[in-house]
Amino acid sequence: MVFRKTIAVFVLLALYLTPSFAQTSGDTVTIELNEKLPKDPKVATLLSAILPGAGQVYNEKVWKLPIIYGGFATNLYFIDFNNRRYQLFREELGKFDDGAPNLNFPNMNRDALARNVDFWRRNRDLNFVVFGLIYILNIVDAQVDAHLSGFDISDDISLLCEPSYESLYAGGGLVGVSLKLKF
User: Is 108 exposed, middle or buried (0-12, 13-18, 19+ CB in 10 A)?
Assistant: First the structure.
């Protein structure tokens, strides 16, 4: 019994809220439905800041996920590689300073070992900066994509490139190229 009353209330509410479209003397009524609503840039930014790639999923650009996570994975690989090389040369420099023989790099003196320590540490630190840039670009991409989601991309937009000729008052003329944007 309660179920029937609930259904009756929903049916009456639906009929009440549904606008009636009556035709009068040749007038036509058209209804346009926009299936894709613009995305909220704040939501996309927040999602991408919390979990990289979540803003792209919100914007329905899932194809960008492998690019983002591929960039993170590649960068993590190079951080690990540069850190291992840094640790190796730092250990060898410490052994050299203690007077132990340099068995791994016999052709390198102390200056060469110190330069390698600095080189690999600088590369590792630079990769941390690149990691931060990838993270920031992920957030910026999600925000910009959300802003542009409501941009009209229809067939009515075109850019024409045509030759043009203009007459001058003093005689002669100008020949050039004209760009016309039609929308």
Answer: middle
Distance CA 52, CA 72 (A): 10
Nearest residue to 85 via CA among 109, 119, 120, 125: 120
Look at the chain and count its residues: 183
Cα separation of 23 and 30, whole Å?
A: 11
Is the backbone of residue 71 left (phi > 0), alpha (psi -120 to 50) or beta? alpha
Per-residue pLDDT tens over the stretch 84-134: 999 999 999 999 898 888 788 888 899 999 999 999 999 999 999 999 999
Can you tell me the distance from the alpha carbon of 139 to that of 52, in angstroms, rounded to the nearest whole number?
7
Helices 65-98 and 110-147: crossing angle in degrees, nearest 10, is 160
